Amino acid sequence: MYSGVPVEIPVLRPRLPSADKLTPWLRSIDASRYYSNFGPLCQELERKIADHAGAGPGGAVTLVNGTVGLQLSLAAEGVDPGDRTLCLMPSWTFIASASAAWQAGMVPYFVDVDPVTWTLDPRATVGDVVGAPGRVGAVMVVTPFGTPVDPSPWEELREQLGRPVIIDAAAGFDSARASSCLTMISLHATKSLGVGEGGVVVSTDAEAIERVRQLSVFGFSDDRVARLRGTNAKISEYVAAVGLAALDEWPQTRAELAALKDLWIDALAALPSVELAPGLAGPWQNTMFNVILPGPWAAQVKAHLASEGIDSRQWWGLGCHRHPAFQGCPRGPLPVTEDLAASVLGLPFYLGLTADQVGRVVEALGRGLKKLEG
Ligand SMILES: *Cc1c(COP(=O)(O)O)cnc(C)c1O
Fold first, then answer.
1. HEC secondary structure over 263-274
2. d(CA 343, CA 57)
3. Which of 67, 99, 183 for mutating ligand 1's site (highest number of atoms within 8 Å of CB)?
């Protein structure tokens, strides 16, 4: 696949707060001499993210990364690692969803997504749970690339099935709304609100959030006695400082992402056979720009773009079930996943990308497609 042509337009270039924007927060760490363990900056960041997600007091807990956030969410919901029950999840997700379930002591059970929404369908899930090749211990819903999923049918389903439902909204900082389901938002550099490495779990269920928090601090509650089998997944005050600086500039970042997205959508009008990912044009902002090609040509188009110095990415690869480490996990029929894996491509999208560069990508994409459309 490597074309040998130097990359002139990368697929993503994260932009986190500058050193100047960090300085006031770093000075406050000097003054407090608090470096970790839910210090003042961490608490402020959690309060602000809980507010942003509509979670209410105590509705957010920060973690070292989103993957661990998913893992501890499953544990907080009572999944017993000794049981190795199935975690029903879409194969159409980033591999971290599967890793987290495995690390929580579960076996991923990959099912297909709805072709229109790219996410699990609550009604189909009822049948998938009943027909699963083993006991389903939890369901993991994934919001595709920050396009929100309505949590209410999932809250109902959790009651109906009597098993936990957690939501992987890794890319959903801008759109995620807290519900009674534990919902993970990644703060990785490549996601909307980046701190480098980090994650947060939000919920309107403050008790469940408190259990995630305990699991992130050796299973301790107020005393130093482990009541849960936890780990150490706390963020440092330095990470919280980056998060607070990123939140300060979020309105600006968000406006720039929106403007870039509009520019892209206008430019793509030149290629009517190329469709936008579901919800991409919606009123929420994200750092990934996926399109659906008019044929199963993601790999070929990626190679063509590379030959013109343009990087692109199949963000979710060929689906989790195709990764060697997880291909032995049970799965249902996956025709939609296979179809999306072959036809979805992430195009260059980052702050600083110019209108000229977008135009260049669209022209290159047009040339690549012309070869394939014959
Ligand atoms: C990024 C991502 C994760 C993992 O988040 P990290 O903070 O990088 O651990 C999990 N699931 C999905 C869908 C993601 O996109």
1. HHHHHHCCCCCC
2. 43
3. 67
In 15-37, which positions are buried (b, 16+ CB within 10 angstroms) versus exposed (e)? ebbeeebbeebeebbeeeebeee
pLDDT tens, position by position, 188-236: 999 999 999 999 999 999 999 999 999 999 999 989 999 999 999 999 9
Pairing of strands 275-276, 165-168: unpaired
Phi and psi of 111, rounded to 5°? -125, 170
Instruction: Give the mutation target among 186, 187, 197 for probing the ligand 1 site: most ligand atoms within 8 A of CB.
Output: 186
- Check: pTM over 0.85? Answer yes or no: yes
Return phi, psi of residue 129, to 5°: -70, -45
Interval 284-328: pLDDT, tens: 999 999 999 999 999 999 999 999 999 999 999 999 999 999 999
Q: Contact 172/185 with Cβ under 8 angstroms?
A: yes
For strand 86-90 and strand 275-276, is the pairing parallel, antiparallel, or unpaired?
A: unpaired
